[in-house]
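Shipment paperwork, digital attachment
Item: protein structure file
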Amino acid sequence: MERELTLHQAKMNLLRVVDRIKTVDEVQAIQQVLANYYAQKVNEEMDRLWDNGTINEQVIEQWGKEHMRTPYRYAQ
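Attachment content:
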């Protein structure tokens, strides 16, 4: 039977891994692993949204035309 990790246990496991880091190269390697993991999750979600029709080429084209900058408030 597989035991579920609590969020606390998961954090403690990650801290044990981080505690063993000795070089900048190891930090960069772990950062790359995490970046790849989350990039894969984004791709999976985008595929799911495409497959269920939530997004399509028209939606993506519309996103490209949106103005999404935050307006600046200038001091008076």
